[in-house]
Design goal:
Blueprint: H1 11-21, H2 25-42, H3 49-54, H4 58-72
């Protein structure tokens, strides 16, 4: 992604990317895209270790919402 600043990520963050995505290429691209958009919106202009630590996968967000709906009887 063409961000203004270089993203100097630690090895721990790179391992976390693999853990969050299961190494699935499309999920890695989704993660990078989401974090890049957030970096632009916040003015940070780089992907940070902290942003990776706080990121929630879209597929998890949908699963959690689905579980909440099931519990509520909807």
């Amino acid at each position: 992604m063409p961000l203004e600043n270089k993203s100097n990520l630690k090895v721990k963050s790179l391992k976390q990317i693999l853990a969050l995505t299961g190494g699935v290429t499309s999920r890695i691209f989704a993660l990078i895209k989401d974090l890049s958009i957030d970096a632009i919106v916040t003015g940070e202009e780089c992907i940070t270790d902290d942003a990776i630590a706080k990121w929630t996968p879209v597929w998890s967000r949908h699963a959690n919402a689905h579980r909440r709906l099931e519990k509520s009887g909807v």
